[in-house]
Design brief:
Oligomer: heterodimer
Largest sheet of chain B: none
Structural class of chain A: alpha/beta
Distance between the termini of chain B: 22 Å
Shape of chain A: globular
Largest interface: A-B, 68 and 85 residues
Number of strands of chain A: 38
Helix content of chain B: over 70%
Number of strands of chain B: 0
Order of helices and strands of chain B: HHHHHHHHHHH
Chain lengths: 470, 295
């Protein structure tokens, strides 16, 4: 069987070579209908590896045989803007190193670049462009989606499809994919997933879990989406070492958690999001908890935002650094049903004003943040227009001076840390900086010096008493 | 200019040459700039602003060590507060002293006795003081940028340059208001008091008042944004934030509204508020100075 396959491939390559002469760039060859590939698949035996010759194959391909389709020679599948480009209808199919582009755009039929309708598929290192949905798995357990690059169609965010969608496909591994400008990377009704080192930018929800339990999300980067990770109705999820940055849509959360039990949020970096962590009524069940440990939550507009009904979460060893509001209840209320320390270890708060006389690393005064301006923002969101202004400082000063104006604190951390925990800091990458700032500094100082020199010595700016030029 | 008389032996009897208007303005500007450099207020403001700016840069970076992410964002927020407090104070008091000081010392009469127009005197003073203020700001921001370059790398160079540019524009506009105050005041004490009052109003009273009205009268977001951008300090703040984030969504519903409806023209609208705060008071000052006596 292997021999036939080798022979077949050799003949295919030979035919291609005689047809095209010397290997030419893919654009040089005329596009062929996708039925050429279908005939090759028909001739191949199950399990064969089919290395397609370079070229553009137009139309909609359906794979009904467990084969390996390798496009590394420079293969482009072009759906010509109609329907799903590649449909996988057999178990154990591999599609790798191909470019797949131009799916249909009709939202009702949800056309994709690659639709996987059977289990144990491997979708690896493909480049997907101009597709409504990128990779769409439905009832396809034990698949592996790895190293693909997906870009959706140039539509408004609400009209795009999902970059990667995993629907009722248990045990699937999604890793090292890059999704730009799509809707979501979304997981529906799927359990035991491993979602690792993916990068999602410019999309709606970076990673979106719906009714998908028992999964691990590890080392993903979610940058510039509306929401980084949104967990909904999904239990036993672990988020570890993810980077969530600049997620600032209208409901912009680094991590949003809605009605989820037993989530573990560990060593993630949440930077410059509108809201770092948003907790909506989680955990829901009696006896379950949410654990937030050793995360770096910095430079967000609001570090932690939770609905007032939220309880039974534990926060320990996190670093809340320079968030405009470190922690707030959504609307009015307090976060008293949650523990901000575990076994005598609380969190680092950059606005903590206490001291540590016994030098055990734990502040001797409990942390009870009271911000009048923050309390005003909770009931009058429009007043946010006045942040970063002296008037805001004046309001806070008034509250300090007049205790009767002081609002109730939103939370109590009984054991605040006085130094930034290193585990949290380690989770944030340090960006490479150039030294253009030094140039700017030099330029401004030189400019000031030059201004002084010119104004003080230039003859035409000389003293008035010296008289005017004739 | 009349000090240069034509020599008696000259063949062609001439009156002293009247210099070109622009060169007169430049001369007055140069004189004002040198006077400023030699004066105590300039030195004090420059040193104070530099120390504060460097302090804010250090403090805002200390929380995360050398970890530079968003370092400039926080520094900018701290610098914004500092600039909004200190720079209007510098510019208003500098402007307030300009004409009133000369008037009190009696040197204004001497100046106006020269064959120059009052407009030239006033514009020259404004230009010279503007140059002195920008110079002072460049020193403060320059040292502060040096600290950032050393501790945080080159994060946000463009945003920092825009912060400096908008701060300069704010200083010039507040200087115009100061000059206007100076023109209408007879004594330095009065003009300085008025300048302080205006400073207090712009920095605290108007914002707090607007906050209260927003709550009491349930102002709509567009009304709130419109009223806020009339305040040069708020316009300055929003312009800096727009340049840093490409959006005003950090300022809540009113900011998001402004970003969505005004889009790309938002920075220009905010900058034009500052330009109006420069030109209208200066124009008024010129008109009043032309009309009123020199005493």
């Amino acid at each position: 069987m292997l021999a036939t396959a080798c022979h077949l491939i050799a003949s295919v390559v030979a035919v291609a070579a005689t047809a095209q002469g010397p290997p030419a760039p893919q654009q040089a060859s005329a596009p062929q209908p996708v039925s050429v590939v279908e005939r090759m698949i028909d001739r191949a035996a199950p399990g064969d590896e089919l290395r397609l010759p370079a070229g553009v194959y137009q139309g909609n391909l359906v794979i009904r045989k467990p084969i390996v389709l390798d496009g590394s020679a420079g293969v482009v599948f072009d759906g010509l803007g109609k329907g799903t480009v590649i449909t996988i209808a057999a178990e154990g199919v591999t599609v790798r190193r191909a470019t797949v582009r131009a799916s249909g755009q009709d939202v009702a039929s949800e056309p994709a670049a690659i639709f996987v309708g059977a289990g144990r598929a491997v979708i690896e290192s493909n480049t997907i462009q101009d597709a409504l949905f990128g990779i769409d798995l439905r009832d396809a357990p034990q698949c592996r989606v790895r190293g693909n690059t997906v870009r959706s169609k140039p539509l408004d965010p609400e009209r795009r499809g999902d970059g990667i969608r995993v629907w009722s496909s248990h045990g699937t591994v999604v890793e090292d994919n890059v999704v730009n400008d799509a809707r979501d990377m979304v997981f529906w009704y799927s359990e035991d997933l491993r979602v690792t080192r993916n990068t999602v930018t410019g999309s709606r929800y970076g990673l979106h879990f719906m009714y998908s339990h028992g999964s691990v999300l590890d080392g993903n980067t979610l940058d510039g989406n509306s929401v980084g990770v949104y967990l909904m109705y999904s239990n036993r999820i672990t988020l570890r070492g993810n980077h969530l940055r600049n997620n600032r849509g209208a409901s912009g959360y680094g991590i949003g958690i809605k009605d989820c039990d037993d989530v573990t949020i560990l060593k993630n970096a949440l930077l410059a999001n509108r809201v770092g962590v948003f907790i909506d009524n989680s955990p829901t069940s009696i006896g379950s908890t949410g654990l937030f440990e050793s995360n770096l939550i910095a430079f967000n507009q609001v570090g932690l935002l939770a609905t007032p009904s939220t309880r039974s979460n534990v926060f320990t060893g996190n670093a809340f650094i320079e968030n405009e509001e470190p922690a707030a209840a959504h609307g009015r209320g307090r976060l008293m049903g949650n523990d901000f320390a575990r076994n005598g270890v609380g969190n680092y708060w950059s606005d903590y004003a206490g001291f540590d006389l016994d030098q055990d690393g734990i502040g001797d005064v409990v942390h009870e943040p009271q911000s009048l301006f923050g309390a005003m923002l909770a009931s009058e969101p429009n007043l946010r227009l006045f942040v970063h202004s002296p008037a805001q400082q004046a309001v806070e000063f008034t509250a300090r001076a007049l205790p009767e104006l002081r609002p109730e604190s939103t939370l109590i951390d009984p054991a605040p840390l006085v130094a930034v925990p290193q585990t949290a800091l380690a989770s944030a990458g340090v960006p490479a900086g150039t030294n253009r700032m030094a140039w700017l500094a030099g330029a401004m100082l030189a400019g000031a010096a030059a201004l002084i020199a010119v104004m003080a010595t230039h003859p035409s700016l000389g003293p008035i008493s010296r008289g005017a030029p004739a | 200019m009349s000090t240069i008389a034509a020599p008696a032996s000259a063949v062609v009897p001439t009156r002293p040459a009247t210099p070109k208007p622009l060169s007169c303005v430049a001369r007055f500007a140069g004189r004002e700039f040198r006077d400023a450099l030699a004066s105590k207020w300039f030195l004090l403001y420059t040193v104070a602003f530099t120390v504060l700016a460097v302090g804010v840069s250090f403090l805002s970076l200390s929380g995360v060590g050398s970890h530079g992410f968003a370092g400039f964002g926080r520094t900018a927020a701290g610098l914004l507060n500092l600039v909004m407090l200190v720079v209007p104070l510098m510019a208003l008091t500098a402007g307030a002293g300009s004409i009133a000081g000369e008037r009190e010392r009696g040197t204004l009469l001497y100046l106006l006795a020269q064959p120059v127009s009052r407009t030239q005197v006033l514009l020259g003073k404004h230009l010279g003081l503007s140059a002195a203020l920008v110079c002072s700001l460049c020193i403060g921001f320059g040292v502060s940028a040096g600290v950032l370059a050393w501790r945080a790398g080159g994060v946000g160079v463009g945003a920092f340059a825009m912060l400096v540019a908008f701060t300069s524009l704010l200083a010039v506009s507040m200087l115009s208001v100061g000059v206007l105050i100076s023109v209408v005041s007879r004594r330095t004490a009065i003009s300085t008091g008025l300048a302080l009052f205006v400073w207090l109003t712009l920095v605290f009273v108007s914002d707090l008042g607007l906050m209260a009205s927003s709550v009491v009268f349930k102002l709509r977001v567009q009304e709130l944004f419109g009223l806020a951008s009339l305040n040069p300090l708020q316009a300055f703040k929003m312009a800096v934030i727009v340049n840093m984030n490409a959006s005003l969504d950090v300022l809540g519903p009113a900011g998001a509204y402004a970003s969505q409806t005004l889009g790309g023209s938002l920075p220009w609208i905010l900058a034009s508020s500052l330009v109006a705060w420069t030109l209208v008071p200066l124009g008024t000052a010129v008109l009043l100075f032309e009309k009123r006596g020199s005493v």
